[in-house]
Design a protein that fits this description.
alpha+beta, three-stranded antiparallel beta sheet, about 20% strand
Length: about 70
């Protein structure tokens, strides 16, 4: 028997604890906003404070890219 599948919102929130993540059912958009402001250095490196995507998979990809920025930026 397979364990019950988690809802995408719960999965994203667990995977990216530094972000406020929600789904707007009316607009059909998935949003993520950082809990803390960005530094100037993070902004120059391409970090975003707010992300919006049409599906949870694309939001997860965007969030993964944001978490990898500090590793790829000097």
């Amino acid at each position: 028997m397979n364990p019950p599948k988690q809802e995408p919102l719960a999965v994203l929130r667990q995977a990216f604890p530094g972000w406020y993540i929600d789904h707007d059912a009316v607009l059909g958009r998935w949003i993520a906003m950082r809990y803390r402001p960005l530094t100037t250095q993070e902004t120059k490196a391409g970090a975003k404070y707010f992300l919006q995507r049409a599906c949870p998979e694309r939001l997860g990809i965007a969030l993964t890219g944001q978490t990898e920025l500090p590793r790829t930026t000097p």
